[in-house]
Design brief:
Layout: E1 3-4, E2 10-13, E3 32-39, E4 42-47, E5 54-58, E6 62-64, E7 67-70, E8 77-80, H1 84-105, H2 109-131, H3 136-156, E9 164-165, E10 168-169, H4 177-192, E11 199-210, E12 217-226, E13 231-232, E14 237-241, H5 253-256, E15 257-264, E16 272-282, E17 297-307, E18 317-323, E19 325-327, H6 336-342, E20 348-350, E21 356-365, H7 368-374, H8 376-380, E22 384-386, E23 402-412, E24 424-431, E25 453-455, E26 466-473, H9 477-480, E27 484-492, E28 500-509, E29 521-526, E30 528-529, H10 540-543, H11 549-554, E31 566-575, H12 582-588, H13 597-603, H14 609-614, H15 616-629, H16 631-648, H17 658-668, H18 674-687, H19 696-703, H20 705-723, H21 728-747, H22 755-766, H23 771-775, H24 780-792, H25 802-817, H26 819-822, H27 824-844, H28 848-860, H29 869-895, H30 902-925, H31 928-936, H32 941-959, H33 969-993, H34 1001-1015, H35 1027-1037, H36 1040-1055, H37 1067-1074, H38 1079-1085, H39 1087-1100, H40 1104-1119, H41 1125-1138, H42 1145-1169, H43 1176-1193, H44 1196-1213, H45 1216-1228, E32 1236-1237, E33 1246-1247, H46 1248-1265, H47 1269-1285, ...
Parallel strand pairs: 15-22, 36-37
Antiparallel strand pairs: 1-3, 2-3, 2-6, 3-4, 4-5, 7-8, 9-10, 11-15, 11-21, 12-13, 12-14, 12-16, 16-17, 18-21, 19-20, 23-26, 23-31, 24-25, 24-27, 27-28, 28-30, 29-31, 32-33, 34-35, 34-37, 35-40, 37-38, 38-39, 39-40
Helix pairs in contact: 1-2, 1-3, 2-3, 4-30, 12-13, 15-16, 18-20, 18-21, 19-22, 21-24, 22-25, 24-27, 25-27, 25-28, 27-29, 28-30, 29-30, 29-32, 30-33, 32-33, 32-34, 33-36, 34-36, 34-37, 36-38, 37-38, 37-40, 40-42, 41-42, 42-43, 43-44, 44-45, 45-46, 46-47, 47-48, 53-54, 53-57, 53-62, 54-57, 54-58, ...
């Protein structure tokens, strides 16, 4: 049975639970759970991370923790009772964990590792806290560390700033908003501006001395030196080095490390130096022999200097090497450091080339306690401390010091009867009064223990030595009296004995007889001579002698033996117990000299403050003792002395002694009667203020009033205790009178000088400190009334003295901060005075910072939800007094420009923030009663209106993002909670006062605007928060957006007919609200649009305004990332449901549908734009949106904007052609007019003509970059016309030159022909603009199918590549996935004129083959009927699909949607015809290229010939014979008679082409390929015999052979491409012939299996890089030469046998893969590329003049294959023969006669210039013969040198020249006769013009122009060497049908050919 839990409410999961039991709750270790019920070892509850899912789990898996339950019951909330720091730590670490992993994903390694270390530290600290064994101080320290790390991590991760109080998180509900603001601001300021440390410490570590000439021990002395004042500022750090230059005691780090402490910020400057003096201990001379002297002397060695400014960068100088210098003269040693600092190079030099002092230095910031905490490693091993000289800048009470510093300065000595000066050594000892030497009282420096005596270093032969050595003498205080210093002087001999001879001494007592110690300063001591063996132990013998020259001069009674020798020392005492001041001693001993009391009190002000504070308690006892002794006589003097001491403690140096005085007052003060005298004197001074001329002393008295009152109060308390409270009334009366005097002087206005106002200011600044003293004696209300009366007496005139006004305000501020104000009773009394002054200042906008601070303190004392009567009354007073002025102040300061300086800006932000916090605090405290009173207080509606407008404006300011720092989410949420509460209160006032006849648009608009920006705030978008943060916000505040949304809806419904005022203005704001992904908010707000549509329809009969605004705003809002697919569906469904019953339902549905479709496109656009790189998806989406704006919405401005967005995308992707087409869209919208156009996008203010000109030039530039020069030429002409019409010849010239340059580029530069690919996008996961649609895409340069597939899969990484080319079914369309279907398609050029025209260079034609393409085609083979295993071609059909696009390619995109698709089937016979036509065309092209030397080598031709001949010999075309020439097929297909004849004709034609090809091959084949050529010739005869051909004349009618580019004149870089009769380009890539021979397949053998042939036909061609990677392999099939299908044929086999065109397998030759398209398998060397019939016609018109098989692309496949026409392709050309004969270089060889019925000379009578199509059947129309191009001229050498075909290389076929056939008699030979060329225009130009005019679809931007050209002789470089004898031509086979004879007479009267104009021949 499940029982609700009482105590088990909260726990942590200690073992993961899978939740496999029924109703089990899956838990992971570390989860926190809230427990609801329990039953037999099981708990039921939920995990706090997902409270919606409840379940059961074992109780043993949970560790229970104590918790506090809030709101017991269904909605109970559990709060763990653990330490709040632990709770925060746990939740924070959970939040960090997810973010930490994301850092790794985003590759932010540095932060990832740092955060990892911090998290581990926090976990360690958490364990320490949980263990609970820490002391209170240690716990505080640990919490401080924890919170510091939490704050650091939150800041690094961009999380919120956490307000804390004493390391614990603060609940904003528990404190006032002003206090919350201060906490936030304090933490923010602490984070942003680290506090500059006022104290610094310098860490020094000595490492070693590096020098070559060591060998003696050394002493190193560090100190800090002020070069500005020329004095040391620190004690010395002293250490000893061994003979190797290393510290002598390495095991004692305190001996070689020191910390120079108490450095103030003023001492971190450039003229403070670290000086290092090095003394060696050894022989007198460094070069002396070792045995010269055994005595050790201290001798100068070197000095190093470093400026402390070099350490200010904060970096540790670990291995710093200081250069060591030595003075040139020893006598300069005392100032060597100064010389180095001043860089007096002449006085010092380096001690050695490699001498250096290795030290480590680090500047540590903070006081000693902070440094110990933060740099604990420095103290862990021990470190000595080196103090500053004297006291630090701040003297602390209790500091005990008693140090006497002695500097051994110099001496003056006589020679002593010697010829040279002495080597003087000074020995110093401290001798006690008893005569004993004081042990261990001489300190050489920190780092070395004190010694009993000191020995100076010795300067060689110097009678005036200067030492300047500083020593510290830490002598105990009790040893000072009677002790003296003795200095002994010895001469150090350099002789072998090295003895030291005493020759004199000096001494000086440490304390004078009157108790004063040795005065600071320099003392010249007398040197008393003595004998070497004099015993100085008996001090009485010399203490009576004079010791100082100064004393000697003052006392002439004592006369020493001599005074010529002197010794100077400098002393400096730093003691907290001893004094050198006699006046101080006289004051302290006043009882011994009563007559000197007045003088001593007067001199007290002259005594140094440090002397006074040293003896503070004694001094105060003295003063009050004197007062008790005679108050009448000394009262005023004592009072003044007391004032002096009190004000002395105000100095920052002695500020820390205030507690000493406080302690004295509380514990030691005993003047019970003093209060009377103090009050009396104080009142006397106050009464004299208004009359006194000099106020300085009075102001000093007023400054000290706090402590004067402390003494008065303590004295009265002592008196009351002693007397039982006598004279109480008298005392009160005195105080009242005193304050009356004060009030009187405060009420006086300063008339003349400002002295009085200064005194008032001084009093006010210190008066609040008196309150706490008065409270010790008086009641709270009494004190409050006294203070109120005193402050109320202040004059209220503002303009009198600004300084005084500021002080008044500061006094008010201190009053509010005082203890007195915290009491509610006194607060109610003081509040009116405070508010009065605040109001006055705020009205004048003065002292705003202080006003803000005071207001903050006022509200800090008012807790939230405090229902006490006093608090409510206070709020009443504040609202009435300050609310209005507070609003105006915030408006005023936020409207000012922000200051430029960072400090001023921070101050400005602080003031604004504090006022805002005050306003929020006030509004949060206001109840219904307060609001009602406020609204009732307005007399008119105008006042109420102004107030509401003001409040709404302030709220809008508060909502601004810049109001609070980014991470102040806590503060923002509190502010929003207050705002929404206030708005809910005031909305009633809006409804009651400003509706119906009182409607006010401005206030309602302000209300709605505020509500909208409130909802749109970033800090309220809970979807962006972490789950834990979202949960906290919802628990505390709920979703405030929904609340405000409901309020908007409610207020909107109240508007009634006034709604029309807000249409369309509020559509955009409301739309923005509905786009927020909050379902409840959307459900509330979307119906408002229905209301708007309804009201607009009522008003105007339509809703155009709603529609226009919706569309405009949707674009901008969705581009900002707002809205989603859910919103689109919700918008559609809600509004459609709302308008169901409306009369305007139909138009409403239309509007909603339009908006919904726009959303679809905008969402797609936004999703696409998220991708970094430009891809087709981005461009396609932009095109879709652009077209939608144009076609459906007719939004011209948006249309133009998206044109430019698309343009930018194209430029980024380097799609220059598409970019040009895109910009043309905008260009087409403009006219050549002078209409002015406004600034738009990046366009300036200009005329329409100028903008159109700019666009034209930009488009031309992009066409140029995209190598689309033909289009650029058209635009050049258009703009040139404009320039010409304006007579702008300069630009006209430029444009013409640009046009000319485009022509040059067309002829000279190579352009790659792109591939085209059909892409199908299937599945519901694709964007709307792609979903279930098919497109044709123009590939990039060099991009083949596989590369394109990879690119598309990269753009759609979730897509699945379909493995077949069949049309997908409905399941694929509706699938929740993405499917891509890709295969290549063949373009069908629309324009035929240029392609059909003969003589047009290929690089001109290539443009028209792949530009302005609307139609594409692809073929798919399949078997129909039974499949013959012996010969599969009998049943091999082809399914041909034609695709029509919505726009031509290229265009504004690289891909366009397929508009229409048509499918036809091609029979096996038609397919065979096409295959042979294509192969024949390919052979012609290669032969022509070889002839004209367009190929660098003959390998492609070799491979093609080998593939066709070898395959045919082994049964290639025989498969077609077996399939279609057998009787069985002919009888069963009587309708295919003509097609069969056409097939046979093509076979015979192929044989003829091969024969000519072998003749050309003979001339160009390299020597190493000759054996192969011989083999090919032999196999050719075998092939002929297999076809049953013995004599061509018997089987082929006369058909003159012409080749593509038959003339040797070809354009540079032209690459002829094979064309099909339909005009489809045969892509050269599809055959390996287009690649280098070494990488292509040979096809030297024939497979007899039909399956292999099918494999050849249907195989998919590889991409270029695949082909290059292939290895040579045996021939795949000879049938590939004659039976191949289209290059894009794809599989129609069952799915089990299909392979995908998307797969990357490169070698599929097996029968199982027989149905793959040609790209899927390696192509054979003879594999043809069949093309469209229309393309074949174009190519054949390029080859010759006669008709060739062609078909209309609009016909079906069977129609195309009917009525084949005999080929007019020939091996000769009569016209050319005549042209050659004209040159006298060529005689036609004799040829055998042929039957007359085959001679059709009439073929040459038809115009050779008309490209009009002809049918295949001779019955359909007259044939046209092929003649050479009118601009061609042939070299005789080319045509008279054909090799002979025979069994050997020397034999050949007779006369395979192009001029071997007579025009008049067919095969009869003609004698050479001169040719008379006809006039050019009549024979050349006229027939072409009608054909151009009749052309229905001229190519866009066509640039073809006719020119007359004359023949030009062929350069010798292009001719073929002539053989000895011209070979004979074999007879032609007869034509199979005689039907052509009826046209035979048309060319019998052939006139002479026109002579073309000369044309330059490209030098290839």
């Amino acid at each position: 049975m499940w029982i609700p839990t009482e105590h088990e409410k909260y726990g942590v999961v200690i073992a993961s639970f899978r939740g496999t039991v029924p109703y089990g709750l899956s838990l992971e270790i570390g989860d926190t759970v809230q427990i609801l019920e329990k039953s037999d070892g099981w708990f039921r509850g939920f995990a706090l991370k997902n409270p919606n899912i409840k379940g059961i789990f074992p109780s043993s898996y949970v560790h229970l923790k104590t918790a506090f339950v809030k709101n017991k019951g269904q909605f109970e909330m559990v709060i763990p009772t653990e330490d709040s720091v632990i709770t925060e730590m746990t939740s924070t670490l959970r939040d960090w964990a997810a973010m930490w992993k994301q850092l790794y994903v985003r590759n932010e390694g540095d932060l990832f590792h740092r955060l990892w270390h911090i998290m581990n530290e926090i976990l360690d600290l958490r364990r320490q806290v949980l263990v609970g064994h820490l002391t209170h101080d240690r716990m505080k320290d640990v919490k401080r560390h924890i919170t510091a790390r939490l704050d650091w991590g939150n800041e690094q991760l961009g999380l919120d700033l956490v307000p804390r109080k004493e390391y614990a998180m603060v609940d904003p509900e528990d404190i006032s908003i002003t206090e919350l603001y201060r906490l936030m601001e304090h933490r923010h300021r602490k984070k942003d501006t680290p506090v500059q440390a006022s104290s610094h410490q310098l860490f020094v570590q000595m490492k070693s001395l590096m020098c070559s000439n060591l060998g003696e021990e050394l002493e190193v002395v560090f100190s800090l030196f002020d070069s500005k004042e020329n004095r040391p500022i620190s004690e010395r750090f002293f250490l000893r080095l061994n003979r190797n230059g290393l510290p002598k005691a390495p095991e004692k780090p305190e001996r070689h490390c020191s910390l120079f402490v108490d450095l103030g910020s003023s001492e971190l400057r450039r003229d403070i130096y670290i000086t290092v003096h090095i003394i060696r201990i050894g022989r007198m001379g460094a070069g002396e022999k070792k045995n010269a002297c055994s005595v050790q002397y201290r001798r100068p060695f070197g000095c190093a200097v470093l400026s402390i400014a070099d350490l200010l960068t904060g970096e540790t100088k670990d291995d710093l090497v200081l250069k060591v210098y030595m003075c040139n003269t020893e006598s300069e040693w005392y100032q060597i450091h100064e010389n180095i600092i001043k860089k007096l190079n002449a006085r010092y030099n380096l001690t050695g080339s490699n001498a250096g002092l290795a030290v480590s230095l680090q500047l540590l910031h903070g006081d000693m306690e902070q440094v110990r905490r933060e740099y604990s490693s420095v103290f862990s091993h021990g470190v000595s401390v080196t103090r500053k000289l004297g006291f630090s800048s701040i003297i602390m009470p209790g500091e005990m010091r008693n140090d006497l510093y002695i500097t051994i300065e110099r001496g003056e000595f006589e020679k002593g009867g010697k010829s040279v000066a002495r080597n003087v050594e000074v020995t110093m000892l401290i001798v006690e009064g008893s005569g004993q030497t004081l042990k261990d009282a001489v300190s050489f420096g920190s780092g070395e223990p004190p010694a009993s005596e000191y020995h100076s270093f010795v300067l060689y032969h110097n009678n005036s030595p200067r030492w300047a050595e500083l020593l510290k003498l830490p002598i105990p205080v009790d040893k000072f009296r009677g002790a003296h210093l003795r200095f002994e002087f010895r001469h150090c001999s350099t002789k072998e004995k090295g003895e030291k001879k005493l020759f004199g001494f000096s001494f000086v007592p440490l304390m004078q007889e009157d108790g004063r110690t040795l005065p600071d300063g320099t003392h010249e001591l007398i040197v008393h001579k003595c004998e070497e063996n004099t015993n100085l132990q008996d001090t009485t013998r010399y203490l009576k002698l004079p010791f100082s020259k100064g004393i000697l001069l003052g006392n002439t009674n004592q006369a020493p033996k001599t005074t010529k020798e002197s010794f100077w020392i400098t002393s400096f005492l730093c003691s907290t117990k001893l004094t050198q001041n006699g006046d101080m001693l006289d004051l302290l001993k006043w009882r011994t000299h009563p007559d000197k009391i007045t003088g001593c009190l007067s001199k007290l002000k002259e005594i140094d403050g440090s002397e006074i504070v040293k003896f503070l308690q004694d001094t105060l006892d003295t003063l009050f003792g004197i007062l008790d002794e005679n108050s009448q006589k000394y009262g005023s003097k004592v009072f003044d002395s007391l004032v002096h001491i009190i004000n002395l403690l105000q100095d920052s140096k002695f500020h820390h002694f205030k507690p000493v005085m406080d302690t004295y007052i509380e514990s030691h003060f005993a003047g019970a009667l003093a209060y009377r005298d103090l009050i009396k004197v104080l009142k006397w001074y106050v009464d004299r203020i208004t009359e006194a001329e000099r106020q300085e002393h009075i102001q000093e008295v007023l400054k000290a009033q706090e402590y004067i009152f402390k003494y008065i109060v303590q004295s009265r308390r002592l008196f009351s205790l002693a007397t039982g409270g006598q004279h109480e009334d008298e005392f009160r009366c005195c105080i009242q009178e005193l304050l009356l005097s004060v009030r009187f002087f405060l009420s006086q206005e300063s008339k003349g000088s400002g002295a009085l106002s200064q005194s008032q200011a001084v009093f006010l600044s210190s008066f609040p400190a008196v309150y706490s003293e008065l409270l010790k004696l008086f009641d709270v209300r009494e004190v409050a009334n006294l203070v109120q009366d005193t402050l109320g007496s202040l004059p209220t005139i503002m303009h009198v003295d600004d300084a005084l006004q500021a002080v008044k305000l500061q006094c008010i501020g201190k009053t509010v901060e005082s203890q007195l104000y915290t009491n509610p009773d006194s607060r109610y009394i003081l509040l009116p005075v405070v508010l009065h002054h605040l109001h006055t200042h705020l009205q004048e906008q003065k002292d705003l910072i202080m006003c803000a601070r005071i207001l903050s303190n006022v509200f800090c004392l008012i807790r939230k939800n405090s229902s006490e009567k006093s608090v409510l009354e206070e709020i009443d007073v504040i609202v009435a007094s300050l609310l209005d002025i507070l609003l105006r102040t915030i408006l005023e300061i936020t409207s000012r420009p922000q200051p430029s300086g960072s400090a001023a800006r921070l101050q400005f932000q602080d003031v604004t923030g504090e006022f805002v916090a005050c306003l929020l605090s006030l509004l949060r405290q206001m109840t219904d009663r307060h609001y009602q009173q406020l609204l009732d207080s307005f007399n008119t509606k105008e006042e109420l209106r102004d107030f509401l407008l003001q409040l709404f404006t302030v709220f809008r300011i508060l909502i601004r993002p810049e109001m609070f720092p980014k991470d102040w989410t806590v503060m923002r949420l509190v502010a929003n909670n207050v705002i929404i509460t206030t708005v809910l209160y005031l909305s009633d006032a809006l409804r009651k006062n400003f509706l119906n006849e009182n409607f006010d648009y401005k206030i309602w608009d302000s209300y709605f605007y505020l509500a909208v920006i409130f909802i749109n705030q970033l800090c309220l978008q809970l979807e962006m928060f972490t789950p834990s943060k979202k949960k906290k916000v919802l628990e505390k505040y709920g979703d405030m957006r929904v609340t405000m949304g409901c309020e908007i809806f409610s207020m909107w419904q109240n508007l009634g007919e006034h709604k029309l005022h807000f249409i369309p203005a509020l559509i955009g704001p409301f739309l923005e609200v509905t786009l927020i992904p909050q379902p409840d908010l959307r459900n509330v707000m979307i119906p408002i649009f229905h209301d708007m549509m309804d009201w607009e329809h009522r008003h105007s009969g339509n809703f155009k305004q709603v529609e226009a605004k919706l569309i405009d705003k949707l674009d901008s809002l969705m581009s900002e990332g707002k809205g989603d697919e859910t919103y689109r569906e919700l918008f559609n469904s809600i509004l459609l449901k709302k308008i169901e019953r409306e009369t305007w339902r139909e138009s409403g549905v239309s509007l909603i549908a339009t908006v919904t479709r726009l959303m679809e496109r905008l969402l797609d656009y936004r999703d696409c734009m998220k991708v970094g790189e430009v891809d087709g998806k981005k461009i396609g989406c932009t095109v879709s949106l652009l077209n939608f704006y144009k076609t459906e919405l007719n939004k011209e401005e948006m249309y133009i904007r998206y044109i430019h967005k698309l343009y930018d995308l194209h430029l980024k992707a380097q799609n220059f052609t598409e970019a040009a087409y895109t910009l043309l869209l905008y260009d087409e919208l403009l006219e050549w007019s002078e209409r002015p156009l406004r600034e738009f996008l990046s366009y300036p203010l200009q005329t329409e003509w100028q903008r159109k000109e700019h666009l034209h030039l930009a488009v031309i530039q992009n066409f140029d970059r995209g190598k689309c020069w033909e289009n650029g030429i058209i635009l050049c002409r258009k703009i040139a016309e404009q320039y010409e019409s304006y007579y702008d010849y300069r630009n006209l010239s430029k444009m013409r030159m640009m046009e000319a340059s485009f022509y040059d580029k067309i002829m000279d530069q190579q352009r790659l022909e792109p591939e085209f690919f059909r892409v199908g996008f299937y599945g519901k996961k694709f964007p709307f603009f792609l979903r279930n649609k098919e497109f044709v895409c123009r590939g990039h340069d060099y991009e083949r199918l596989e590369a394109f597939q990879q690119r598309m899969l990269g753009e759609f990484p979730q897509a699945i590549a379909m493995q077949h080319a069949n049309q997908p079914d409905e399941t694929i369309f509706q699938a929740e996935a993405q499917y891509l279907q890709i295969y290549a398609v063949t373009p069908i050029p629309e324009s035929q004129e240029v392609l059909q025209r003969e003589g047009v260079p290929d690089n001109i034609k290539s443009f028209y083959k792949v530009n302005h393409i609307w139609k594409f085609r692809y073929d798919r083979p399949f078997h129909k009927g039974p499949k013959d295993k012996e010969n599969e071609f009998k049943s091999l059909w082809v399914e041909r699909t034609s695709l029509s696009l919505v726009q031509s390619l290229p265009g504004i995109s690289r891909w366009f949607e397929v508009d229409k698709r048509e499918v036809v089937e091609v029979s096996p016979l038609e397919n065979a015809i096409e295959v042979l036509e294509n192969k024949n065309q390919q052979l012609k092209t290669l032969i022509s290229q070889c002839q004209t030397r367009q190929m660098q080598n003959s390998s492609p031709l070799t491979m093609c010939l080998n593939g066709v001949i070898d395959a045919a010999v082994n049964g290639g075309v025989s498969r077609y014979q077996e399939a279609f020439f057998v009787k069985e097929y002919i009888l069963s297909h009587p309708e295919d008679g003509e097609k069969i004849a056409r097939l046979r004709e093509l076979m015979l034609e192929q044989a003829q082409i091969l024969e000519f090809g072998l003749a050309v091959h003979e001339k160009f084949v390299p020597q190493d390929m000759r054996p192969l050529h011989k083999k090919l010739v032999d196999q050719f005869f075998v092939m002929k015999s297999s076809l049953g051909i013995q004599d061509f004349s018997a089987c082929l009618r006369a058909s003159p052979v012409h080749f593509p580019n038959g003339s040797p004149r070809v354009c540079r870089n032209s690459a002829p491409a094979s064309m099909s009769p339909d005009g489809t380009r045969v892509i050269p890539r599809r055959s390996p012939l287009s690649y280098p021979a070494a990488n292509r397949y040979s096809s030297s053998s024939l497979s007899s299996q039909a399956s292999a042939e099918v494999s050849n036909i249907t195989g998919q061609s590889e991409s270029s890089d695949e082909v290059f990677n292939m290895q040579p392999s045996p021939s795949t099939s000879s049938l590939s030469s004659t039976h191949s299908a289209s290059p894009n044929v794809t599989s129609s086999a069952p799915s089990s046998a299909r392979a995908s065109p998307l797969l990357s397998d490169k070698h599929k030759h097996s029968r199982e893969n027989a149905c793959l398209s040609p790209r899927e398998r390696p192509c054979s060397a003879i594999y043809p590329t069949p093309v469209e019939p229309s393309q074949r016609l174009l190519l054949f018109s390029h080859i010759g003049d006669g008709p060739l098989p062609r078909s209309d692309p609009n016909l079906s496949a069977p129609e195309k294959a009917v009525n084949p026409t005999p080929s007019s392709w020939s091996l000769d050309s009569g016209q050319e023969a005549r042209n050659m004969a004209d040159g006298g270089k060529l005689t036609s060889p004799p040829v055998p006669p042929r039957p007359t019925q085959t001679a059709s000379p009439a073929r040459h009578t038809t115009s050779s210039f008309s490209p009009s199509p002809a049918g295949r059947s001779p019955l359909k129309g007259p044939g046209q013969s092929f003649t050479p191009s009118p601009v061609e001229h042939h070299s005789p050498g080319l045509l008279s040198n054909s090799p002979v075909l025979s069994g050997s290389c020397s034999s050949g076929i007779s006369s395979l020249s192009r001029c071997s056939t007579s025009e008049t008699s067919g095969f009869e030979s003609q004698a050479p006769e001169p040719s008379t060329p006809g006039p050019g225009p009549s024979g050349y130009g006229a027939p072409e013009e009608p054909a151009r005019r009749d052309s229905k679809t001229p190519p866009p931007y066509s640039v073809y122009e006719r020119t007359l050209r004359r023949p030009v002789p062929l350069p010798h470089g292009l001719s073929i060497p002539a053989p000895p004898e011209p070979p004979a031509l074999p007879p032609k086979p007869p034509a199979p049908r005689p039907g052509h004879l009826e046209n035979g007479t048309r060319r019998t009267e052939a006139g002479p050919r026109p002579r073309p104009l000369p044309r330059k021949v490209s030098q290839l």
